[in-house]
Automatic annotation (TrEMBL):
This is Purple acid phosphatase. Its cofactor is Fe cation; Zn(2+). It is an enzyme of class 3 (hydrolase). Its EC number is 3.1.3.2. Belongs to the metallophosphoesterase superfamily. Purple acid phosphatase family. Residues 380-437 form the Purple acid phosphatase C-terminal domain.
């Protein structure tokens, strides 16, 4: 698309205004980085294939309905399709239940997938431990999970946040640190296996990644957001169906929220109404995604789910050179909705670093009015970038200078986040850096709920 001189001038003015305001803290911590992250070798224990004929592998779970009483159980078998059944029972009952799902396969260039199983088990009790068995008839494997508390405004619940994980030694450290956290459910903000970085989008790397994350994703739900590395669109090798590996391997409960695509949807989990948006699906005002979002937001009942959380991949507020301003078109379309409905926090990835801005908005800007500097807005969400999982592309280390006024904390390190919702008014957020083999709480703050407790929770002064 060609741009006129006035468009270039407008963008240049916007960029200059945004970066010429002194902001918060740029961390002084310098990661000991000799080279880019290194992939774990294919024979690593992290990728070990479970023993036994047709043994289920790459087991993972995600929420299977809108309120948390269903779970999608997914796994892969390689020798034959085997059984689609899941046997499950609760810790409070000796009665076994059986659910049967579907099996999928796909081809990608010169790769043919194993047999991908998805089974949705329903009518689960809240706040209950369930055990489940897959691989019926061949090699069985048993796992467990805990359902969330019943939807309610004051129930405590803890979410983890990871994005852009990949499968390097640093990825392994991030996942280990997260497993040692208090997280009950992982909010995953996109870019999973990075298979598209290998020759011909080597889909074997989807298999290794699935086995890598099983140690967490088989035991607690990962809520999926699609990133740019999930698109896998490559006409040069004859692959013209976007999201083919991702959509076959990682199902979402999009139908439960009347969404028209699996890449944007919503769930309720404990005290939170979580909206997942698709940075790489159409989002203009005439798009299906926009129409869905504008019908979904009025359904958010803050007297039942007190916290409104949004997930996306490409951040809207970003002061790194990597992907700078890339989220701007989507922000222009959607931001006023998040202010209107008092979103509490928006988590994104994409930029391979960490950043937390203050509560700001820029929804008055219309390109011609010159009002293009983000301003303090206590009705706006906090936009946090957690694209620091540890993938092979390495860290985004180049930052715009000086730090923008809206940026409270930024650091080029790997790590994970946690959001501990305490009640309807308070939640504690922390970002945990991978440092010398340990998880170090490098950034933290109390978040005040925008609906129930809309006080100023800023950590720096914004002029």
């Amino acid at each position: 698309m060609k741009m006129g001189n006035s468009s270039f001038v407008a963008i240049a003015l916007l960029m200059s205004v945004v970066v010429l305001c002194n902001g918060g803290k740029t961390s002084s911590y310098v990661r000991k980085l000799i080279q880019n992250p290194v992939d774990m070798p294919l024979d690593s224990d992290a990728f070990a294939i479970p023993p036994g004929y047709n043994a289920p592998q790459q087991v993972h779970i995600t929420q299977g309905d809108h309120v948390g009483q269903a779970m999608i159980i997914s796994w892969v078998t390689v020798d034959e399709p085997g059984s689609n059944e899941v046997i499950y029972w609760s810790n409070s009952s000796l009665q076994n239940f059986t659910a049967e799902g579907e099996v999928f396969t796909y081809t990608y260039y010169n790769y043919t997938s194993g047999f991908i199983h998805h089974t949705n088990i329903t009518n689960l009790e809240f706040n209950t431990t369930y055990f489940y068995v897959v691989g019926i008839g061949n090699t069985t494997r048993q796992f467990w999970f805990i359902t969330p508390p019943e939807v309610g405004i004051n129930v405590p619940y803890t979410f983890g946040i990871i994005g852009d994980l990949g499968q390097t030694f640093d990825s392994n450290t991030t996942l280990t640190h997260y497993q040692n956290s208090k997280g009950n459910t992982l909010l995953y903000v996109g870019d999973l296996s990075y298979a598209d970085n290998y020759p011909n989008h080597d889909n074997v790397r989807w298999d290794t990644w699935g086995r890598f994350i099983e140690r967490s994703a088989a035991y607690q739900p990962w809520i999926w957001t699609a990133g740019n590395h999930e698109i896998d669109f490559d006409p040069q090798i004859g692959e013209t169906q976007p999201f083919k590996p991702f959509s076959n391997r990682y199902h979402t409960p999009y139908v439960a929220s009347q969404s028209t695509e699996p890449y944007y949807y919503s769930i309720k989990r404990g005290p939170a109404h979580i909206i997942v948006l698709a940075s790489y699906s159409a989002y203009g005002t005439s798009s299906l995604q926009y129409k869905w979002l504008t019908s979904e937001l009025p359904k958010v009942d803050r007297t039942k789910t007190s916290w409104l959380i949004v997930l996306m991949h490409a951040p809207w507020y970003n002061s790194y050179y990597s992907h700078y301003m890339e989220g701007e078109p989507m922000r222009v379309v959607f931001e006023s909705l998040f202010v209107k409905y008092k979103g509490d926090v928006v988590f994104a990835g994409h930029v391979h670093a960490y950043e937390r801005p203050e509560r700001v908005s820029n929804d008055k800007y219309n390109i011609t009015n010159g009002i293009c500097t983000p301003v303090k807005d206590i009705s706006a969400p906090v936009y946090i970038t957690n694209g620091d999982g540890g993938n092979q592309e390495g860290l985004s280390i180049n930052m715009t200078q000086p730090q923008p006024s809206y940026s409270a904390y930024r650091e080029a390190s790997f790590g994970h986040g946690t959001l501990e919702i305490k009640n309807r008014t308070h939640a504690h957020y922390s970002w945990n850096r991978n440092q010398d083999g340990y998880a170090v709480e490098a950034d933290k703050l109390w978040l005040f709920n925008r609906y129930w407790n809309p006080r100023d929770d800023s950590t720096i002064h914004i002029p």
